[in-house]
Specification:
By secondary structure, this protein is mainly β. Helices cover 9% and strands 33% of the residues. The longest helix has 11 residues, at 154-164.
Length: 169
């Protein structure tokens, strides 16, 4: 399935029940955009592990020290990073949760360090938000003060707690 919207150079790649995967025809970048409204705190959808690995990839979400999952339904992998996210992957409840009001046409974004302790492919963020962190490498590279501005998975919260109170040998 494919159509091009000449107004914004976006090509429809896949239509899901509440969102659609769009491809920027200029850059090739893909994104998941909402086709309906969501309110903060609302569960957008459930997800599950398509596969489980002991090492991260750019397509996995970290759920434990050595547990990284691919997301199912697969179209959720097109939720890109933002330093001002509007969704959150609750890896305990296995639900995608709305953080900020989302209207149809809004790109869904999440804060990668909310699930990733150390990313295998750090990158220079270009989200353009006022508080953009610039380099995204994972939660272990950010200050506690910065991380506490975000909703974090229980796994990342536990890692942060251990980092603040190192074990005595």
């Amino acid at each position: 399935m494919s159509f091009t919207n000449s107004n914004n150079n976006k090509e429809l790649v896949f239509k899901a029940p509440f969102a659609e995967v769009l491809k920027n025809t200029g850059t090739g970048q893909q994104q998941l955009s909402a086709t309906q409204s969501f309110s903060p705190g609302e569960t957008i959808c459930a997800f599950f592990a398509g596969s489980i690995s002991d090492t991260p990839t750019y397509l996995t979400v970290q759920t434990g020290e050595t547990t990284h999952i691919t997301l199912q339904p697969e179209f959720l992998q097109y939720i890109n990073h933002s330093c001002a996210p509007n969704v959150f992957f609750d890896t305990d409840a296995m639900t995608l949760v709305c953080l900020q009001p989302i209207e149809p046409g809004t790109e869904m974004t999440f804060f990668y360090p909310s699930t990733e302790w150390e990313m295998n492919q750090p990158f220079l963020c270009q989200c353009g938000t006022p508080n953009c962190l610039q380099i995204i490498q994972g939660a272990s590279f950010l200050s506690t003060e910065t991380l506490l501005q975000y909703r974090l998975t229980n796994f990342i919260q536990q890692k942060l707690h251990r980092k603040a109170k190192p074990e005595i040998a």
